Inverse folding.
């Protein structure tokens, strides 16, 4: 698959965030994201980017959970890119914050909980849905020359808000897996070190655990501003 030079130049701005192998995977996944016409699952990104056979499939599935890169650095590069292109040198930077519910299924899904759903709620009745609640910080681009009557909100940082349900989800199931793994370990009584078994906290994707602490929506917004500064 041949990518346009402008698209490659755009992705090249994010190369300092990744290692060389991770950057190659990042480019292929972003190409698949644009070319995909179905649900953008990781498997579909591999097919859409014509990357079948180009590395092991686990390289793509573990890119977000175990890749050697930090999402805060990615947000910083994205914020600089958008501000340089859409905000003048003497202009005032206008930011806006909001939270977005992403409906999900599965009671054991990490970080999921019951959150207010504005799409099915009314002023008289408030309804909730199960899923992830993402707190977004956006750069406001008002009345650009290509759309003088439009206002755009471009995300430059994001955090996962976890309520009490979101904090507990994913722990019990992983604890059972760890217990079952320990039972399968051979009993060694000759003094040798037994194989180490990660605990339930490390069974979850390490980036998900590190990047999504339990914080309020206001704290998330303040933290995102601190990251960008």
């Amino acid at each position: 698959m041949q990518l346009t030079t402008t698209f490659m130049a755009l992705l090249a701005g994010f190369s300092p965030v990744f290692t060389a192998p991770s950057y190659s995977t990042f480019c292929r996944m972003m190409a698949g994201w644009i070319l995909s016409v179905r649900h953008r699952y990781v498997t579909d990104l591999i097919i859409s980017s014509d990357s079948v056979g180009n590395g092991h499939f686990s390289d793509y599935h573990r890119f977000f959970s175990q890749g050697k890169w930090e999402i805060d650095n990615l947000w910083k590069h994205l914020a600089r890119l958008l501000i340089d292109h859409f905000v003048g040198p003497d202009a005032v930077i206008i930011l806006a914050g909001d939270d977005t519910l992403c409906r999900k299924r599965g009671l054991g899904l990490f970080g999921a909980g019951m959150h207010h759903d504005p799409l099915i709620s009314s002023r008289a009745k408030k309804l909730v849905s199960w899923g992830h609640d993402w707190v977004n910080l956006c750069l406001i681009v008002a009345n650009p020359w290509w759309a003088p009557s439009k206002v755009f909100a471009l995300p430059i940082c994001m955090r996962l808000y976890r309520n009490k349900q979101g904090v507990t989800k994913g722990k019990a199931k992983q604890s059972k897996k760890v217990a079952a793994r320990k039972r399968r370990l051979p009993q060694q009584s000759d003094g040798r070190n037994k194989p180490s078994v990660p605990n339930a906290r490390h069974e979850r994707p390490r980036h998900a655990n590190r990047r999504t602490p339990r914080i309020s929506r206001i704290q998330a917004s303040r933290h995102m501003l601190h990251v960008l500064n």
About this structure: The two ends are 38 Å apart (CA to CA). The longest strand covers residues 128-142. The longest helix spans residues 20-35. The chain has two domains: 1-69, 90-183+198-229.
